[in-house]
Specification:
about 475 residues; alpha/beta; Aspartate Aminotransferase, domain 1; Aspartate Aminotransferase, domain 2; seven-stranded mixed beta sheet; five-stranded mixed beta sheet; globular; PyrdxlP-dep_de-COase; carboxy-lyase activity; decarboxylase; lyase
Amino acid sequence: MEEVIKKAADVTEKVCEWQPPEKLKALLDLELKDTGENHQKLLQFCRDVIKFSVKTNHPRFFNQLYAGIDYYSLAARFITEALNPSVYTYEVSPVFLLVEDAVLKKMIEFIGWEEGDGIFNPGGSVSNMYAMNLARYKYCPDIKEQGLSGMPRLVVLTSDECHYSVKKAASFLGIGTQNVYFIKSDERGKMIPEELEKQVLRARKEGSAPFFVSATAGTTVLGAFDPLDEIADICERYGLWLHVDASWGGSALLSRKHCRLLHGIHRANSVAWNPHKMLMAGIQCCALLVKDSSGLLKRCYSANASYLFQQDKFYDVSYDTGDKSIQCSRRADAFKFWMTWKALGTTGLEERVNRALALARYLVDEIKKREGFQLLLEPEYANICFWYIPPSLRNMEEGHEYWEKLHHVAPAIKERMMKKGSIMLGYQPHRGKVNFFRQVIISPKIYLVIPEIEPETLCMERAQYEL
């Protein structure tokens, strides 16, 4: 509690204690021995694990699409770790199955569906794979028993800005990565609907069977939201399953101000949404929501194990939802999100989203004021992408040499920050652009710090950005 919860959240502490792999191995004494260690040594191991781990709760951890800590979620995790449940049947997990059902229904409501189905999964990547397999089963139900033989050449369509899990899912499911058609996106990273329709027609002309479109609501690098309404029009026109990977951007649905980013999501057949990101439910907490309420999810994935899903139990077996999952043992991931939602209410979760995006807007405004900082583009979400231009390059013409030198700036600064432990910030090249920083604003531990401003003015500044 002292080292992780309190100390790690202190901005004066290091966000990480960097050590190279070989040195860290030696420091940790990782060897497993024939005889056990005494408790004093075990406690020292625990302290070392904490010391050399990255403090994702630190106010200067901006490296990923998750950050910070929610104490209600943490308390819920203490409970589930102690109870050690497996969420597949009501008899062994009565409370957590009911909790999951309640959370899924509320998430479905925010998508805009009158009814639906869903399941919590170990990651958004798995949710995307579930959705692709479910769409394939809907397209050709015989594949569950007969396999791939005799099936047409199936084609998946997704944006060239999609998460890499779409490509992995096609590989894992035997569809093949060559049968993933990547649709061009515009300069802001949004899928171009006209290009989608061209690729649908191309696939059909080739004699293939396009069946699944994966749109993205909140891309990993730029934080872009695909035009869901226009994409849904095309999917309806050609009878395609529309999946929306809203793993990152789905939480904007809880904000009355920002839910417009996902306009048209109610027309999707399935949605992936990760509350462990913007809503800080704790890794991992990821749901696949499905518009179908006829039992499609269970028909697709069920194996009807007679030793687990007996139909003559003394209670309503419709609560034995585990057969909707490809897993057997399954964690009670919905509980930590439920606990946070119960504690904060929908209004509190909405404020969390609004505050993160207000701080993102504030950061953008500050970047524009400062010499040596250059935005890649105006963000629409919490992904702030920018270059830092060192003094040596500020008067140089933007030619090949300039971009070549700038390409090495972000990695060099990242290395220095990591070794100092001052801040963790991601960088990457992207779509022909040289390395730039991507700062992701999520954690409520981040505060506006405006020196030389009276407290009353500071409160007004905060209020302005919250509005």
